[in-house]
Structure formats: C-alpha cells, structure tokens
Amino acid sequence: MEVLKVEKEKEIKFEFLTAKELEDIIYKGESLPQDPRFFSTEEGGVFRFFRPKNCLNDQDKKIFPIIKENNLIVGLAELEQSWFEDGVIVVKNVAIDYKFQDKKYGINLLDKIFQYARDNKLALQLSSYVNKDKDEGSHNKIKHIIKQMFKKYPDVKVLDNMRKGVNFLNN
Q1: Residue-wise burial string across 14-39, b where 16 or more C-beta atoms lie within 10 A, e elsewhere
Q2: What is the CATH classification number for the domain harbouring 33?
Q3: Where are the beta strands (DSSP E) in the chain?
Q4: Residue 52 is part of which domain span?
Q5: Most buried among 46, 78, 153, 169, using CB within 10 Å?
Q6: Which parts of the chain sit beneath pLDDT 50?
Q7: Where does residue 70 fall: left (phi above 0), alpha (psi -120 to 50 degrees), or beta otherwise?
Q8: CB–CB of 125/89 below 8 Å?
Q9: What is the domain count for the chain?
C-alpha cells in the first residue's frame, strides 16, 4: 500500500488487490455486495462498467488497482493477464466513484498502472472502450489520460484491443 498524499483529514492510499481481497471487501462473506456502490449502475451502483460477479471470475489472472480515501474505495481498475500472450496485461475497467471525480484519482490510478507495467516489463492492452474513434463522456476522459501516460511512459508498450501497437501521440 502506498499513501499518495494527505489532505486536511483525508488519507489517500493506493493498493493492488487480488480478486479474493476485493471480493472480501465487496461481499464480506455474503452473496450480495455489502456496499451498494458495487451494485450494477442500473441498481444504483457508481462504478460504471464494473460488475463484481463478472470481474471476480478467473481470479488467478486478475489484479485490481484501487484508490482509497479515508479507507473507502473511491476508484478501481480491473487488470487481467492476457489469455493470448505472456507479458501482456489487459486494462479491462477503470472507474471512479462520481462523488470523487475531479480529484485526479483517475490520473493517479492510471499512472500507477503504467508504473506497474514499466516496472514489470509488461505491455498494456487497452479495452475497446478506449480505442473508439468517436468517444463520448468517460471514454473521452480516459483516452485523454492515456495520451498523457503514453508521453510520460514511452517505454511501456501499449496495444489496442486487436493486440496491435498504438501511438496516442499521433491521435
């Protein structure tokens, strides 16, 4: 666990969790999420594109970078080891609780993912949501952040959803 910064009475922490650790936090031994923020968005959850039941399958291939504010998960990502290629991590989901957006948590989360890829000599494969030509809303936000990370970490190979190299600097 890494403490990112401390604001007035706020402690911001970054961690990588296993699927089992995240499952224990979300479900606390029950069959339904115990924190309603982890329900589907249709049921009032706040982590768009994140479906705990789906995300926690194939636990040995996944890790979950999270950001906590005062011990509350406010942002998370789902990373999965590629089924097709060793040395490739697929960035499947990145979500920030809408109440905590505009605090640069998404940038911090993606920065830690890129650091992880660089430090472990891994390529990052982006989901199809990041690679859309006509992005809207949160898709456009994440594409903008990925462009920043691409500049900051030029040694990290970034692949699109077809496992081809991408160059966000020319987009």
Answers
A1: bbbbebeebbebbbeeeeebeeebbb
A2: 3.40.630.30
A3: 2-7, 10-18, 62-69, 72-81, 88-96, 123-126, 158-159
A4: 2-170
A5: 78
A6: 6, 129-135, 137, 169-171
A7: left
A8: yes
A9: 1
